[in-house]
Hints:
12 helices; mainly alpha; RNA_pol_sigma-70-like; Arc Repressor Mutant, subunit A; 2 domains; Rna Polymerase Sigma Factor, Chain: A
Amino acid sequence: xxxxxxxxxxxxxxGDKGAYAQIYRLYYPRLYNYGCKLxxxxxxxxxxxxxxxxxxxxxxxQLSAIREFRSYLFVSFRNYLFRLLSQxxxxxxxxPDEERYVFALELSAEQQQMAKEEEYQQHHMLRSALExxxxxxxxxxxxxxxxxxxxxxxxxxxxxxxxxxxxLMARAIEVLRNAYHTMPxxxxxxxxxxxxxxxxxxxxxxxxxxxTLFPLPENFL
Length: 221
């Protein structure tokens, strides 16, 4: 389940703690997963999640829509986690900065183990392409293709304009497409199904192969 039921949302806003618990259980693993891509400090990740959910409960009546809540949650979590990381001297005090933090968007160990031996080179090239993206590009890819967010939501979380978000996404996809199309024997060995298995996202795989389910406006490319 990736979305909050409207009835649950309304009940939570009205003060129903059971509904609040449902929302917490839905978003806790998603925030935790996102936090693990920014740091391996589990304590700070968990502290940040707890803090922003306390704030959400206090401010729940001020949020007018479920979609607004999702952006609010990720923005609050990101900012609070960066603050804790800065205080713990894991990051510079003036973060967030595109070149001064790490975002670990990579193929999972399980996904890599699923690959056949003859596909090793293709997976290695794809992984290298992912690692070459800037932290902000990785975050944009994560939110768009793994969290299915719209560009305005991503822009709010990354605190940049929607136009800048389009450009960020276009450049990231271009890097991944170039890596994919230069792979040797790619049509024979790296099939679409294999690419999906490697990336864990049908939408991102489609974008890389040029059959994107999330088309980018031409004027932003």
